[in-house]
Amino acid sequence: MSVASEVSDRLLKLPEASAVALRLKADQYFDAIQGIVDLFATKKDLDVIYITTTIPAQTIINALEVLEIPLDHIWFVDCISQIMMSTEKRHEHVIPVESPTMLENIMLKVEFLLRRNEGRNALVVLDSINSLAIHNNTKILSEFLHILVNNLRAHGAYTTIFSMQEYESEEIRNMLVLVSDESVQVAEG
Fold first, then answer.
1. Structural contact between residues 63 and 33, judged by C-beta atoms closer than 8 angstroms
2. pTM reported for the whole predicted model
3. Residue 164 forms beta bridges with which residues?
4. Contact 188, 48 (CB under 8 A)
5. What CATH number is given to the structural domain containing 108?
6. CB 76 within 8 A of CB 61
7. Which domain holds residue 149?
């Protein structure tokens, strides 16, 4: 079974408003994105709010376009492009946040997108906890995750938190256990 299919199948078994820690290896990254955004979100007819703190939103958009995945119901909260001083033209589905340290702004942008598309169920993807841990202290990050996930549950939204296994620490694993309903480790292909 492909990584994309495995991720989608595992997520489809979960109840609405579930929070999932998705533990990946770096070489599974784009396959996992395809499984979440194309297979899972499409089957569930979900809007996707993709919080990117690892690579710029435009890079992910380019990959989705290559895979011929429509962007109609995919929105990005891009926390990394400005800090990287990216000069690329911003896509209309991208909302910038100045820095991954601006956790309150991230929550406000997500809330804005949820309200903007009220009446539609949503999936929020946080890519990745490892990158946020580089930019934020653990106590603040843990509080942010707790508030974000509980707010998303109140909206009936699914939450998927990427964690790159190669860069996980014990603190990150403990944080994920506290906020996630389930931890999914993608099998090696």
1. yes
2. 0.94
3. 24
4. no
5. 3.40.50.300
6. yes
7. 3-185
